[in-house]
Amino acid sequence: MGLKVNNISKSFKKVNALEQVTFHIKPGELFGLIGPDGAGKTTLFRILTTLLIADKGSATVAGYDVLKDYKSIRNNVGYMPGKFSLYQDLTIEENLTFFATIFGTTIEENYNLIEDIYVQIEPFKNRRAGKLSGGMKQKLALCCALIHKPKVLFLDEPTTGVDPVSRKEFWDMLKRLQTKGITMLVSTPYMDEAALCDRIALIQEGKILEIDTPKSIVKHYPKPIYNVTANNTYKVITSLNMYPFNHSVYPFGEHVHYTDKRDSFNIKELHNYLEQNGLKNITIQKTKATIEDTFMELAR
Amino acid sequence: MKRFIGFVKKEFYHIFRDKRSLFILFGMPIAQILLFGFAITNEINNVDIAILDHSKDATTKEIINKISASHYFSINQIIEKESDIEPIFKKGKVKAVLSFEKDFSKKLITQNHSNIQVITDATDPNTANTISNYVNAILQIYLKEQNKNHTSAYQIIAQTRMVYNPELKSVYMFVPGVMTMILMLVSAMMTSISITREKELGTMEILLVSPIKPFQVVIGKVFPYIFLSIINAITIILLSLFIFKMPIQGSLFLLGLESVLFIITSLALGILISTISATQQTAMMISLMGLMLPVILLSGFIFPITSMPVPMQIISNIIPAKWFIIIIKGIMLKGVGLQFIWKETLILLIMTTFFIGLSIKKYKIRLE
Amino acid sequence: MFGDFIAVNAINFEVKKGEIFGFLGANGAGKTTAIKMLIGISHPTSGNATIAGFDIYKNTEDIKKNIGYMSQKFALYDDLTVRENITFFGGIYGLSRKRIKEKSTTLIKELGLEDVSKNLVGSLPLGWKQKIAFSVALLHDPKIVFLDEPTGGVDPITRRQFWEMIYKAAHQGTTIFVTTHYMDEAEYCDRVSIMVNGKIEALNTPKKLKSQFNVESMNDVFLNLARG
Lengths: 300, 368, 228
Description:
By secondary structure, chain B is of the alpha/beta class. Chain B contains 14 helices and five strands. In chain C, strands 4-5-6-1-7-8 form a six-stranded mixed β-sheet, sandwiched between helices. A two-stranded antiparallel ribbon of chain C has the order 2-3.
């Protein structure tokens, strides 16, 4: 059970979409695939949901081989593609009934699984899907993907383009589903959502950079990171970029994250340097690496 | 089976909720039939004609008077020689020229028959046909009057000569043509658009990642359109029967069977189009360019196939609509049975099998 | 008025020259409506506004000459090359041929695109496209640039390069107006306004907003506001 991906490679024309991707997901795990657009997340989802065939490598989903047992996989997985993929001209209820029917089940049969999500949209059940807000569409899509009680649930960027409130609600729903024993693979470009997964894989340009729990993955960060601020962020960035000892300089919201090449780094020295560059109200503080720092360090 | 019924139900929701398409779907056949029907009238009134009288005797004068007395024709001019005919047609002043042969009266008396040539401008074939019928009718009335007074029966033979478009099309030709076009449009274009819409929406991905079988998707898509096409075919036949009093000579049952065959041919084509197009727009373009234009231009619906250049005639053979038009023309207008159209039917059957086979082969169970 | 609800209720704010101003709100909160009014393609039911000193009722043509616009949905033509895109947009804004040539050469050099300047834009990675699009929006030296969700989905490193470009433009005096519902983009702005149901519910620096609600991130500020 769970999911096993071994050395999967896939290319389109000249572009390598996936290169030697390997990871295993334990049954009941909530696994995150974190990476920007074009990293190969959707291609990987399509291979695992039997929509595409990999050039190389093998994979099993819930114990079934993606190539040989594709029919069994289609009976046992739920898939929510990145694009909203329901019938806009059908109502909430009609969409759900339709998907229940083609999976050979009924809404009543697995109602307990979707109940706490469905009650939120049930008041609008006669409204057409095309007229729903982003958050409601997403809840409906999740209901449709769950209606046949899948063993594994694939969610491709479910929170892209959704406002923060709906995003939070959505992750709460996933956490509750997890208690029902469903294995989940979720992809997202948001680094802050990574923390909500059991384990994450960082992916860029078709390659897995690192796989670990969100807590441990930041421990791989090799250097101390300093938060630098001053009265003019642009000047901070340009000054730090010119500083001969910099290892990395990344704006991070109102701060700039700075790492130094040397093992013995002196805050005072940098402070002076920035002052010489005409900056005022300078603060330099040690800070903890985030998943995004780790991602950038690995992707360099 | 439950899955299939669920799928078909969903398809009907799509069709009935898209009010605009629904209106086009059912409005178009009615509009087209009425348009073609009323544009082609078989009534004529004060049509300008010219007279070329080579004998100028009493009989010809009488006939000319009869013709000019009727409100159907008005004599625009009298011409003197054969070579004048062409220029006045070219100027478009007259629709027909009546040419009386030399020694008209004498021949009528000595040989009991003489000839009138009715030369018509058949660029407007329906009018041309009607004109020659009316001239004939006037001549018959005249002869009946004359023959009362004579013991031996005279005969005046009106020879009709059509210029510019010798292959005259039937007045009712538009019914088979419109029917072919509508069935093609509804069956092929609508199915191809409805399948590509699922691709564009992304719902095809979900359908593929579900236990529903590809052939169930295809049949489920096609089923509602068979139903709609049959309704359209019936509408067209009823309209032509009751509004235009078009006689259907052959068996209605055979007509129905052949129509269903053609509907299936078109649906198979529609599925084929949808397998090669990724968007609704492409599907629509291919349907219009690849199906509608050939049906209109090359099937013999508007332009007679025999007057096409040879390469076009050869190309027209691969157009299913051509064969269907021959079939329904045969059944509707000539009243022939299967023994006369089995060849065309067989060709359609082979084409259909080929298209279905190709679509099944091309149908993807995955995304690429 | 849009149907039976008011997309944008009386909103008041001022953006300073050279400021990076974040205009935040959920989908359907009225962001697009407000932007359309500001760039002069839609008129407010009531109220007034000036953009770069120009009145949005009277001087719409002047406004168009003095603003730049870039959105994630439409930025450049995929079927034109990098250079063709630059030339095209330069032409639209009435730059002389010589100036276009100079500008495109420096722009391509600054972005390090010498090798791909003859490639179709469609073949480039998303992050590159966004950087080119931003430079193109700045081509005619506008006083204000409107950016609509400029870095959604872009990889973290490219995103930072993008923000460095924005900082630079602002530093040189261009006012930057960013609309987004990605709260991490909000963190980079000098000041942000948060719109809920057509009303501006908060307007301050990200730092002050975070301390006001006593939370760690703009995301949490938003969650607090949206829940009322």
